[in-house]
Amino acid sequence: MLSCEGYKMFRGSATIVPVNGKAPYDIVGDWLYKPEWDCWYCKGSSYPASIVQNIVDYHTEFMYEVMEKVQALEDMVVTVENVEAVKKAIDDIKGQLVSFNA
């Protein structure tokens, strides 16, 4: 979990919807929210919460995907016929964990 000045942060993306009629755009980075200002911060800029939409926490999304795969493996009965598929699934999960932490 990321944190700064006691505030929780997350690595992810959000869509900024300007009020001046310009096209919405996405920003990917480390996000911090300060409730006392109702404001989001990312990459040295601040954004009123009213224009920040579609917030995606990559860590939460990633963990959900990994847990789905783990659950599928737990439900699987390992046999001689599917042992290679199980090994591949485990290697895929390990690869995801390594690339996520890189």
Can you walk through the features of this model?
With 102 residues, the protein is α+β, with helices and mostly antiparallel strands. It folds into 2 domains: 2-57; 59-101. Helix content is 36%, strand content 36%. It has helices at 58-75, 83-101; strands at 2-4, 7-16, 25-34, 39-42, 45-48, 52-57. Strands 1, 2, 3, 4, 5 and 6 form a 6-stranded antiparallel β-sheet that branches. Strand 2 and strand 3 (25-34) form a beta hairpin. The longest helix is centred in the C-terminal third of the chain and has 19 residues, at 83-101. It is elongated and about 60 Å long.
Counted by DSSP, the helix tally is 2
Structural class: alpha+beta
Report the C-alpha radius of gyration, rounded. 19 Å
Tell me the span between the first and last alpha carbons: 15 Å
Low-pLDDT residue intervals, each spanning 5 or more residues: none
